[in-house]
Amino acid sequence: MQLIYSPIEILNSMKRSIDQEKISKNALSVISKLNKEGFEAYLVGGCIRDLLADNVPKDFDIATNAHPSDIRQIFRNSRIVGKRFQIVHVRFEREIIEVSTFRRLDTKVIENQSDSGMILRDNSFGSLEEDSLRRDFGINAIYYNPISKQLIDLQGGVDDISRKVIKSIGPIDLRLREDPVRMLRAIRISEKLEFELENDIKESIRIEAHLIQDVSPARLFEESLKMFMGGYGARVFLKLKELDVYKWMFPNNGSPVKESNLELLIRKALESTDQRVLRDMPITPTFIYAAILWYPFLAERSRNIKEMGLNNYDASNEAASSVLSKQQLITSIPRRFSTPIKDIWFLQFRLNFRSGKKPFRTLQHKRFRASYDFLLIREAAGEKTGDLGDWWTAYQAASDEERQNFQKFARKKPHTSGFRK
Questions:
Q1: Among 24, 290, 310, 385, which lies 20 to 30 A Cα-Cα from 222?
Q2: For residues 374 and 368, what is the distance between their CA atoms, to the nearest angstrom?
Q3: How many Å apart are CA 153 and CA 142, to the nearest integer?
Q4: 178 near 118, Cβ under 8 Å?
């Protein structure tokens, strides 16, 4: 074990420093106030990992020896949250600083585990040293006080960052059983920072991947957002596939429509989202989930038409509801996203109608742009649409008079290539 009370020497050896300007002013004020009240307090976890890896942290978590009730009394703008892990959210106008109390492992924690080993309740408080042993990976167990410039590393995390590797604290199979989300976190961090997962972590993830189904759907949905909307979603997707985790998060992808290239479609959608993140453009999980569940939707729609004798409209509605309901059991998709997903799917069929007033009406739909982008993604993934994407690209750029000519040359019957009826 290694204990560092001054970061100067080790940071010089890494040829980098902690940029204080990247640290949230609100986090600084919380630590300062806790210190003044006589408590230890440190930035910990992803924010310090990202600072040492020369990235800009998005969130700032604080670990302290103050108990939740103490923290709540010190900060009027705070509230205690969580049953499984009791923590305190200190709220500022545009930021929430998460403050947790040092924890330790004892027999009470073991008694509050599920049959698979997942910790159901853990509010046994301890020291910083005990807390560091409870964390998942060495790179997430570095403590830093930006007021005193004190850095503490008990688990060799600084060295792991320097070598760009992710190592487990304690037996990795035990860590994953305690909290299966750790396997998603390991994959996400490895692709975000381009760090290498140690072989024992990869192997344990493959073995324990099924435990993902024990995690609450709401929590898994939030984790999916972190994985797919950070600017490196395409790489995360490939790693999830490689380590056999993806099939447990999206089990409905097992039997897509024949001739479809599901993996390529999802990769194209994620690559598009990654590019938008890099360009600081708006993104939404609607587009990603629409791609992930597109072929299951088409397969279900086809079955509704062939086996149940439903018309196209009813078959689409039934299929969309069925596919989304099944996925809700794994990753709960809020209605604000599930409704637009349906719109994107249904508009794929309306895009085929290119005569009369229908193209103009489709163009006015509030989901048209997302649906048009989705059409281009489908074509990039190999779906045959009869150059439908080119037609809509030109139609959007045309004047009203030119659009009349577009419609004259449009087919009288809607084009249906690429859809299974």
A1: 24
A2: 10
A3: 5
A4: yes
Contact 372, 351 (CB under 8 A): yes
Residue written as tokens 């020497």? 9
Tokens 């690209």: give the residue. Answer: 393
- CA–CA distance, 171 with 200 (Å, rounded to integer): 9
Alpha helices per DSSP H over 279-367: 285-292, 294-306, 312-328, 335-350, 358-364
Task: Give Cβ neighbours of residue 198 (< 8 Å, ≥ 6 apart).
Answer: 165, 166, 167, 168
7 CB neighbour count, 10 Å cutoff: 20
Q: Tokens 């930035």 label which residue?
A: 43
Alpha helices, DSSP H, located in 112-156: 128-134
Active-site residue numbers? Answer: 59, 61, 136
Average pLDDT, stretch 225-235? 96
Measured between alpha carbons, how far is 247 from 230 in angstroms, rounded to an integer?
Answer: 21
User: Hey, how many other C-beta atoms are within 10 angstroms of the C-beta on 228?
Assistant: 26
pLDDT at position 11 is 53
Instruction: Report the amino acid identity of residue 229.
Output: M
Identity of the amino acid at 188: R
What values do phi and psi take at 78, rounded to 5?
A: -135, 165
Residue-averaged pLDDT of the chain:
87
263-322 pLDDT tens trace: 899 999 999 999 999 999 999 999 999 999 999 999 999 999 999 999 999 999 999 999
Length of the chain: 421
Which one, of 137, 145, 133, 183, lies nearest residue 164 by Cα? 137
For the chain, domains (ranges, CATH) are: 8-178 (3.30.460.10), 251-409 (1.10.3090.10)
Per-residue pLDDT tens digits for 63-99? 999 999 999 999 999 999 977 678 999 999 889 999 9
pLDDT of residue 122: 56
